Known about the structure:
Distance between the termini: 105 Å
Number of domains: 3
Low-confidence stretches: 44-53
Structural class: mainly alpha
Number of strands: 0
Helix content: 55-70%
Strand content: under 5%
Oligomer: single chain
Radius of gyration: 40 Å
Largest sheet: none
Amino acid sequence: MFQINPYPVNYDHLLRELQAVQVAQFRLDELRAIFDTPGGRRRAKRVACSWLRCDRPATAKTRPVRHYLREWAQDHDAPKKKRQRRAQNDGDPELKPGKASKNKPISASKDSPVFAATAAQIADISRLWQTGATLKVIGEHVGMSYQAVSRIIRALGMTRPEKPRLRAARASDAQIADVLRQRSDGVSYNLIAAATGLTYPQVARIARQTAQQAAQ
């Protein structure tokens, strides 16, 4: 019969080797499944072909014809589109590619719409700009684009009168006392403002200044 070993034998190293062989076998099966199945390479080509926006598989028989790819390249030619835009901009003096800064006054150059506008149009633009009309309204009135109107206004340095800043009326002593009384009762700023006829910032300022004076 079998020889009985009275001493225990450690098989851990054999188990580790067996597990390493099993892992290697599993990875080998994975690689075989990728490369040995029919159509595996075709799938890889199809992935590369989708980058070219082709809706057909890239096998040798049904590969897209050359003119299809050439048309796709023309449609996606960024430098060509940029050149077309520049040519379009150069042809229209109102759509120059160089955008002027709002803070820097525009010099009335030869291509400026100032030379294309008549004296009556410039007078109308100045009058409407003084009354506070928008660029779009001015452009519709004088028959020009709002970009051209804007360039004329900046080139000629037209200004419009500043709107006076509307400040709320000062709070009276009775209103201040009413605010402090309601605030001590825990009423919110919104309700105090509605009851006293003051604005929310006024009520908040009165409460804040009173608290600061009490802390001093």
